[in-house]
What we know:
Layout: E1 2-8, H1 14-30, E2 32-35, E3 38-42, H2 45-58, E4 65-72
Helix pairs in contact: 1-2
Amino acid sequence: MMVLITYDVATTTPQGRKRLRLVAKQCVNYGQRVQNSVFECLLDPAQFAMLKNKLENIINKEEDSLRYYLLGNNWKKRVEHVGAKAVYDPEGTMII
């Protein structure tokens, strides 16, 4: 299933900047950054549960926020892109 993950982490303190780096690092491990604080992640339910748990243990729930948009398996009909930055297909062929 495709999950869109967005986050807003308070960065006014060194601890906040560290949380921001840790959240981004976890998201990079599971998906593709499509905007500064937005990731598209193609996950199975177990991977989603694991990532969600990791992220929620990083953030400060009093200062930061996470949003999960569950786009499901038919996500290609739900995503439309306009403008800069190349579109990628996580199910497509990967060239290394």
